[in-house]
Amino acid sequence: MRGLLLNPIAILLTAACGLAICAAAGWNAHLRELLIAAVTVLLACGLAELPIFIVRRGDQLAMSQAALVGTVVHLFACAVGAAVVLLGYLPLGMSFIVWLLAFYWMTLIALAATFIAAVKQAPNTAKTG
Question: What is the DSSP letter of 27?
Fold first, then answer.
């Protein structure tokens, strides 16, 4: 459940820092691209947490595999979002990709922290011998 809070916080902090940097440098922040990238990554994060929820009662092995699948889902969902914008000839500039990458990396850190905590909390039922 912690990941459901960490990802929006990571997106908000990244957007705030990015907007502050753009304002300090006098650059156009491209707010439309920022919002579309934030929604894209937020949806990707929601999809990435589904495998952990599916095996929430599993052991550490199942949780680690679900965490791996979650990071792959996160990557591919963000890539599909970028492909839809680029190949669909939507009127968004390259600033969308810049915002998407910034949000992707920050939410990947938050997802990894969530997944590590989930694997550590899972019971260890490894068989020895």
Answer: -
From residue 30, how far is each of 2, 27, 37, 62 by CA, in Å?
30, 9, 11, 41
Cα 59 to the center of its chain, rounded Å: 24
107 vs 91: CA distance, rounded Å = 25
Q: Is residue 28 part of a domain?
A: yes
> Would you say 118 and 63 are in contact if contact means Cβ atoms under 8 Å apart?
yes
Establish how many alpha carbons lie within 13 A of residue 108's alpha carbon, considering only the half-sphere containing its beta carbon.
16
Structural domain boundaries enclosing 81: 2-121
- Segment-wise mean pLDDT, segments of 10 residues, the chain, 129 residues: 81 96 92 94 95 91 94 96 87 89 96 93 76
Reported pTM = 0.90
